[in-house]
């Protein structure tokens, strides 16, 4: 937990710097704009937070704005055929499914 908190503090400080969102940064997948890296981090933390909550029998309540941002990013990134990707096919869920569970289902997680 200490290592996570330390790296999160460093990441937060880096993204708070003046003009950082107008820059691009090298990544293992090539140059990426900072705004996309922030959105990617939101998606990762939301989905992996959901994974951890489910694995430990907890409930995760993500703010609707976070879920909508993550869903928008994933919708733009993921192709219809997700074969060979770390995301499964979108799972169908009832209309009253929580925002966090809707995000997880879109990313191919099984909600039940």
Can you offer a commentary on this structure?
There is one protein chain. With 112 residues, the chain is mainly α. It is built from 4 helices and 2 strands; from the N terminus they run αββααα. The protein has helices at residues 2-16, 34-55, 64-77, 99-106, and strands at 24-27, 30-33. Helix 2 packs across helix 3, helix 2 (34-55) crosses helix 4 (99-106) and helix 3 (64-77) packs parallel to helix 4.
Give the topology.
Layout: H1 2-16, E1 24-27, E2 30-33, H2 34-55, H3 64-77, H4 99-106
Antiparallel strand pairs: 1-2
Helix pairs in contact: 2-3, 2-4, 3-4
What is the alpha-carbon Rg in Å?
15 Å
What's the total count of β strands? Answer: 2
Approximate strand percentage: 5-15%
Mean pLDDT: 91
- Count every helix, treating DSSP H or I runs of 4 or more residues as helices: 4
Structural category is: mainly alpha
Low-confidence stretches: none
State the strand order across the main sheet: 1-2
Element-level helix/strand string:
HEEHHH
State the major sheet. Answer: 2 strands, antiparallel
- Please bin the fraction of helical residues: 40-55%
Straight-line N-to-C gap: 28 Å
Shape: globular
